[in-house]
From TrEMBL:
ATP binds at residue 51. This is Protein kinase domain-containing protein. Residues 23-124 form the Protein kinase domain. It comes from the Eukaryota. It is a single-pass membrane protein. Keywords: ATP-binding, Glycoprotein, Kinase, Membrane, Nucleotide-binding, Receptor, Repeat, Serine/threonine-protein kinase, Signal, Transferase, Transmembrane, Transmembrane helix. One of its GO terms (cellular component) is membrane. SUPFAM superfamilies: Protein kinase-like (PK-like). It comes from Helianthus annuus (Common sunflower). The keyword Transmembrane helix applies.
Length: 124
């Protein structure tokens, strides 16, 4: 895939800013090793999870785009789907499909819920 064809997967920063209510505290879903994750809703109603990568990345725009395009090619039922990305100035956002059930670890490490996931199911 060429960089040129990435444009449709590239979202305007302002679109995502609006979708997350300006990265509001109320929309915060959690924090991971790469930044804070916010819940958002696009104009068409699609629910998204936006990962706002933490600053001082030395990675250039082209390298970032290439890496994102590589991940966009991955499709697996057990992988959360990356919908696109956004770049503006030092801001780098990754846009994922929203998963209502939060992360799997809540199931695997929860005393009650872990019984719902037997090992046979976990291997699928
Ligand atoms: N697609 C999503 N839908 C709903 N919630 C999400 C989604 N992605 C992440 N989250 C929430 O944001 C939190 C942080 O996610 P993130 O993927 O950044 O980190 P992590 O997987 O917990 O840790 P690490 O970044 O260290 O691997 C998750 O624990 C989850 O609650």
């Amino acid at each position: 895939m060429k960089i040129g064809s990435s444009e449709s997967l590239q979202y305007n920063f302002s679109t995502i800013k609006a979708a997350t209510n300006d990265f509001s505290e109320n929309n915060k879903l959690g924090r991971g090793g790469f930044g804070v994750v916010y819940k958002g809703k696009l104009i068409d109603g699609t629910e998204i999870a936006v990962k706002r990568l933490v600053g001082n990345s030395q990675q250039g725009d082209i390298e970032f785009k290439n890496e994102v395009l590589l991940v966009l090619k991955l499709r697996h039922r057990n992988l959360v789907r990356l919908l696109g990305f956004s770049i503006e100035g030092k801001e780098r956002l990754l846009i994922y499909e929203f998963l209502p059930n939060a992360s799997l670890d809540r199931f695997v490490f929860d005393q009650t819920k872990r019984t719902l996931l037997d090992w046979e199911t976990r291997y699928i």
